Amino acid sequence: MDQYTLNLLIVGASFALYIGIAIWARAGTTAEFYAANRGVNPVMNGMATAADWMSAASFISMAGLIATVGYGNSTFLMGWTGGYVLLALLLAPYLRKFGKYTVPQFIGDRFYSQGARLTAVVCLIIISVTYVIGQMTGAGVAFSRFLEVDVSTGLWIASAVVFVYAVLGGMKGITYTQVAQYIVLIIAYTIPAVFISLQLTGNPIPWFGLFGTHTESALPLLQKLDQVVTDLGFNAYTAQGSMLNMTLFTLSLMIGTAGLPHVIIRFFTVPKVSDARWSAGWALIFIALLYLSAPAVGAMARLNIIDTIFPGGTQQEAVLYDERPDWMRNWEVTGLLKFEDKNGDGRIQYYNDKSEGFAATAAERGWTGNELTINNDILVLANPEIAQLPGWVIALIAAGGLAAALSTAAGLLLAISSAISHDLIKDFLKPDISEKGELLAARIAMAGAILVATLLGLNPPGFAAQTVALAFGLAAATIFPALMMGIFSKRINSLGATLGMIVGLVVTCLYLFTYLGWFFVAGTNMLENVPANYIFGIPPTAFGPIGALLNFGTAYLVSMMTQAPPKHVQDLVESIRVPRGAGQATGH
């Protein structure tokens, strides 16, 4: 059976499963659409949360960025994992106790202000749309390769699939679909990692193989990798970058994680407050199974690529373009891998042509520039092909990559549709809307969000993980401070919280748009996105903590200068902080 047919069978079977679950668990009420009727088992919710969390950025893009940059991009692992701990300990149980359906609903009630709620809706939509661009980008990459179409066509196919099961099932359908998607994605990620670790180190456990011995050279794997990348003018794989940027970026991901609306609403689906804590614990276990393997996958992918291009070693001639391996031919079709023969010798020169220290060596070897451009988002998906693993493994990782992208996209789209239909339409525009009308509005809002995300995903502001990191920065600067102050401070009032969110959102958006273009539209940026133009050297992806500080500072100063919250609101805050029991859902 050829690879294309095998891809269609395995990916098609997984999609049939997702759509079948969505039909079986179709939401018939707003309680089912928004919160799965609060009847999800904590273990199941932990698995669904892990799938919701481990997006295209985790599955497809994170290992690719680690492969390219090395130790410096371990910030993704540290930030996302640490943020989940913050979410589990500081936010999830208290928000569940409050008994609402959405994050803006909590903010509106806690800060006794429709203005605060509307501000939270705007923040949530901007965060979620930015995040879902990254998911659709990742799904488009996967579809483009394994259905052998260009990346734009792959993106439209991805949007059609997620439209069917997300719009139909709501939270109830999405929850059980995400359980199935977690099982698919973790198997798909682990099996190739085990094979490749065995090939390179003889150790079947990838995270041990990373610190093991490279079988062919008898050197430690990381030492061997450092050697081959520095031979080509790249920085050492284990070298550290700017500690300030690493710290800010890690912090941005951490507090951004704790403020992500699509993850927070998962904790509204369990029966009790204690179940919210257990859900978070189980989710961390399920997430760790993939995150422990990601650094190994990234390192081994980088080594495999260089060995492919320089089969006789980095000191020898590169492979002839006409003799390039099949995996390169396959990915060239997508436009995500490109070759340009700059010196006309017919060989693939792959090196760091921006390294001044390597320029003399490159000139001596007759190289006139790097000739191979590899999109970071393809490395995990291409890894089984690079390592020449069986066809069924290649098809399986295709299904896993798509499961990761579509599961998170569905959660984000639900957060957007809930904010629009429940917080905006029902509470602002049409309070007398029927439950059936609200359900229809939610589905229309979700369809609209899919269309916007797809159009923006055609020209994303970065790789999948980089685009997602921008969403984390926005969440860090807006939602996280409001939730923390809402739960742990009785003194922060409605005006302070509202102005804090506005300041955090506006300043952070302006910083992002300055370098990445207005609303991420290519060519509209005011400054080139290069380190020389950054304020104090802070890149857009690491600006979240600065926005958060401005949010906290504004909220505190304004609240201290204005009237304290009413007594009943202060009593409400006190009751939230005692995690016993759970209020029934209200306001729907």
Q: What are the key terms here?
A:
588 residues; mainly alpha; two-stranded antiparallel sheet; 67% helix; globular
Per DSSP, what share of the residues sits in E-state strands of 2 or more residues? under 5%
Class by SSE composition = mainly alpha
Low-confidence runs: 581-588
On the 0 to 100 scale, the average pLDDT is 82
What is the element string, with H for helices and E for strands? HHHHHHHHHHHHHHHEHEHHHHHHHH
- Largest sheet features: 2 strands, antiparallel
Distance between the termini: 53 Å
Radius of gyration, in Å, reads 24 Å
Question: Treating each run of at least 4 consecutive H or I residues as one helix, how many helices?
Answer: 24
Going across the biggest sheet, name each strand in turn. 1-2
Characterise this structure.
- With 588 residues, the protein is an all-alpha fold.
- Strands 1-2 form a two-stranded antiparallel sheet.
- The longest helix has 51 residues.
- It is globular.
- This is Cation/acetate symporter.
- InterPro entries: Na/Glc_symporter_sf, Na/solute_symporter, Na/solute_symporter_CS, Na/solute_symporter_VC_2705, Sodium:Solute_Symporter.
- It comes from Peteryoungia aggregata LMG 23059.
Task: Tell me the layout of helices and strands.
Layout: H1 3-24, H2 30-35, H3 42-53, H4 56-69, H5 75-98, H6 103-110, H7 114-146, H8 151-201, H9 206-209, H10 221-230, H11 243-257, H12 261-264, H13 273-291, H14 294-309, H15 326-332, E1 337-339, H16 359-364, E2 372-374, H17 379-386, H18 391-429, H19 435-457, H20 464-477, H21 479-488, H22 494-516, H23 544-561, H24 567-576
Antiparallel strand pairs: 1-2
